[in-house]
What does this fold into?
Amino acid sequence: MATRRRGRARFQATLAFFTGHATREGWRRFTPAYGELFAGARSRAREIGYAIEDFWLHEPRLGPERLKQILKTRGIHGIIVAPMPIKDAVLPEFDWTAFSVLAVGYSVRTPEFHRISHDYFHGMKMALAHCRAKGYRRIGLFLDRHVSSVTFDLWHAAYLAEQRAAPGAERIEPLLAEDLDDPAIVPWLRDERPDCLVCLDPWRLEELGHLPKGFPAVSLNIDEAPRPMPGVSRDFEVIGEAAVDRVVSLMQHNQRGIPPRPQTILIEGLWANEELLRSAGRRPAAS
It folds into this structure.
């Protein structure tokens, strides 16, 4: 606190940011949201006297022992594990005992570390509440089955819970599809007749012709949207800031290695672009 009052923070140490996409810069290109995550972490680290550096886990000639040696030589004892590709959710064998480790999101399942994540359950409930406030009663949910599984089906669970509790809600069976080309999408829209849709990427459904242009839709993923649309921002910059605070706390309390009982911190998302969600009755249902 004294250093902050003087307007500067004394350098403490460097933190590692582990990435694991197919290429060295793959995590930056996969989605702009991960760039915001790293920017938030770097900004917060600087505020409290830390630096942060990314390490690619698939770097040629950088095996587990060599990586451990580099980190220890440079005095790096805190590691933030970035979200990983869904198919590569198991980290390489590594001796974690000397490091305080925090995973971002739910993609890393093995080992089980302390983690920080967007509050998916809250995000879905928030999206549905805003749809209800606009007068929608037949709110459909479309999700990629693999994405839903990685996030422990929290979006799905929140949707089912809300449908059973919201006054006047008309129940619609949600569609968990294999991908955006799943042949079940069009008949599902025709048979269930939603008057509004909640999904990850409604713009892609429009591009593929599954949704009429202008159909009322809410995105759970506006951080990657190509244009402004109503929905939930996971606010990756704030998640990055909180990740640094948490991993530094683990270091200060000498909590290292794989924890016996991992803890998860949830960060609530933000509702955005309310004015772009039309009220019910202004557009026909999907057909």
